[in-house]
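From the methods appendix. Each design record in this collection lists the tokenized structure first, followed by the designed amino acid sequence. Records were kept in a plain field format so they could be parsed without special tools. The example shown here is representative of the layout used throughout.

RECORD:
FOLD TOKENS (233 positions):
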């Protein structure tokens, strides 16, 4: 699915959904300025949608549902680690962004959105619908909903024994109970429907056991510091 989506305009949207668990409206609101390039994390700060009680005639054409608005709850504001694959694709997409900005200097809207048109305009909430089914079919995957990408991300984390409380924070939920109630019963989805995604996620997600062995190995290292100390008569 991720490979097939490379030939469509929704490649980054797919990656943000299945490898980082972002909501559809959050994906469209992600900007390059939200990326911490040193620590490779994403700060989720906004979503695109309608401003409450606003009138369509008060906005420019085709922008009424693309306004920057606050997230669903205070828990939706969160920091998410970026898998290496996604980080590399963000860097590639930034090169495309700069090329379009230089090529279309008069028409380009320099709004900093990662998911955008060639003219810099943000995507609408339903933009993915036109392209989503094709890579699914070409990959031989079930006809799953777009929201199932986010569900897959959460299910895989729980399947890999990640702490439910930590998973809740990554998903933007207030309590781990919500995560377990919504997703715990769906653990068989991966085994039954999309094993290819599970195999890929195992490559990009942190290996907790390996990390623990690495830390323990560091504790066992003994360094002879005598050569760095002054001679004592």
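DESIGN:
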């Amino acid at each position: 699915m991720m490979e097939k989506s490379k030939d469509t305009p929704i490649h980054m949207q797919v990656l943000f959904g299945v490898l980082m668990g972002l909501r559809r409206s959050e994906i469209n609101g992600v900007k390059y300025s939200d990326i911490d390039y040193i620590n490779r994390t994403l700060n989720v700060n906004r979503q695109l949608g309608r401003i409450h009680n606003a009138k369509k005639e008060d906005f420019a054409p085709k922008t009424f549902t693309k306004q920057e608005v606050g997230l669903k709850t205070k828990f939706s504001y969160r920091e998410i680690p970026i898998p290496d694959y996604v980080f590399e694709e963000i860097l590639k997409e930034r090169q495309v962004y700069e090329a379009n900005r230089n090529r279309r200097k008069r028409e380009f809207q320099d709004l900093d959105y990662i998911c955008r048109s060639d003219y810099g305009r943000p995507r609408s909430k339903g933009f993915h619908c036109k392209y989503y089914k094709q890579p699914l079919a070409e990959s031989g995957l079930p006809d799953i909903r777009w929201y199932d990408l986010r569900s897959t991300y959460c299910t895989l984390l729980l399947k890999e024994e990640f702490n439910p409380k930590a998973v809740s924070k990554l998903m933007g939920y207030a309590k781990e109970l919500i995560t377990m109630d919504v997703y715990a019963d769906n653990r068989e989805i991966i085994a039954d429907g999309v094993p290819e995604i599970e195999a890929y996620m195992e490559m990009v997600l942190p290996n907790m056991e390996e990390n623990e062995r690495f830390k323990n190995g560091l504790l066992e290292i003994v360094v002879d510091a005598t050569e760095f100390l002054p001679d004592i008569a």
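APPENDIX NOTE: Residues 187-197 have pLDDT under 50 and may be disordered.
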